[in-house]
Amino acid sequence: MKTKNILLLALLALTGVFTACSDDALFQNPATSLSDETILETKETAQTVLMGAYALSSDYRYLTIGEIALEVMGHDIKMSDGNYGFSTYNWLMFAYNYVQYPRTVDGWWSAYAPYLWRYAYKAIDQANLIINNADKLPAGCEDIVAQAYGIRGYNYLNLYHLFCHSYTYAGDEGQGLFLRLTPGSADGNDVPRSKLGESLQRIIDDFTYAYEHGTQTSNFFINPKNAALLLARTYLDKGDYVNAQKYAEIASPAFDGSNLMSKEEYQSGFNTANDEWLWGFNFTSETSNIYASIPSFYHAATYKDPESVFGTEGYGAKVTYNYLAENSVDWMTGYSTVRITWSFANLFGPGDSRALFPFYIDEKDGLFTSKYSSKGSLGIADYPLARIAEAYLIEAECLARKNDPKALTVLNALQTKRGGTISTEISVDEVWKERRRELYGEGFALPDIKRLQKPLQRVGDEHWSSVKELPANSPRFMFPIPADELDYNKSTTDADQNEYWRAK
Description:
This protein is mainly alpha-helical. It is built from 21 helices and ten strands. The chain has a domain of 273 residues: Serine Threonine Protein Phosphatase 5, Tetratricopeptide repeat.
């Protein structure tokens, strides 16, 4: 009977039906409340707990909101302002406008932080159950343990990007994460906020374990190859460019363009994983959240004749609703409220396969992008979490930082493969510009601004948000710590709230 209960509980995690209420914010009644002996009876039950961690990590209240928030809080991607035929539905506008709240004010959409926090820590809790009981697992579970470390590291890295200053600014003594390292319990949840150096080291240790002990080969799960890239990403965040380069070279042994997707694959709509994707989530008709999926917010139409809109002139055809209705197979099936600014589109040269900005309806509302689309039905699409192209960009930046001319060779290999404009000079800023062109829509915009200690500088007449500029290292770059955390965690004080959101 106990085994049936834990299987049912993990299946509930898979279908994303954990309820959102303040009492479960810190797991007072944790999903892992059954005995460890019951949960760890078989490899199958351990695998089910792991799948629960993956499901929680891909829930739309975490993945969709978190990934898009990190983009619309940057320079290049914006939200429709609701005045040109597309309601914002209150989705993500609070992140775009930098007015998140630590507690619901105008509705759940005004306070995303508690959702992001809750689902990350639920996934971490599932991973902790496996990690803390690894010695009790039956033989053959070694890779399950390795994946548990990897998924915990991934969620802590997400929380770092959302809720902390960058390490390159705040250093070891900056405010870090609440490092919950044991399965949920009343006592286990009362952990203090750690220092930033300790938090980054925990993430590195988790990814290192996944890299050294994993045996998985599927790119829909944590495996040694994507763990190496996640290590490179984390070391880059930390400003440890020696190790960032080391693991980038493990993730991509070649930097000649041979292991990158083709132009055609890039233009196909990022809905099907290919060999360049080292890790991604796979959404099916059973697991997709349809309107709340990432393609729903980006994608607007699939064309019978792509040339009729894409044409040969580049991006930016002006169309009407009537034109779209008459010429598209699948029109307006999603929210379609995330847009591309004209200033960003102008960073792409003619022939760049990444300039996927087919049309606009009103110039002031920005360009649509077709980078994300679906496989037949809305939301049925794979979503990339780690691609080899990122390894190229990490390698190029690390080489540029020590004035190694090979940096330009690596960058040019990526640009050539994409049909982009070839750089003639190399610098960290030139690599950053290429990161924006290559990785837009993949959750890197705000983390890069923070890591590189750049100010927010939005082109004013393109953005309806009142927040056009913020200084480098602004405390507004961090989401508020949810009020429930500070209310229920006995180890916290008012000083644990991120500075912009503290009571004045």
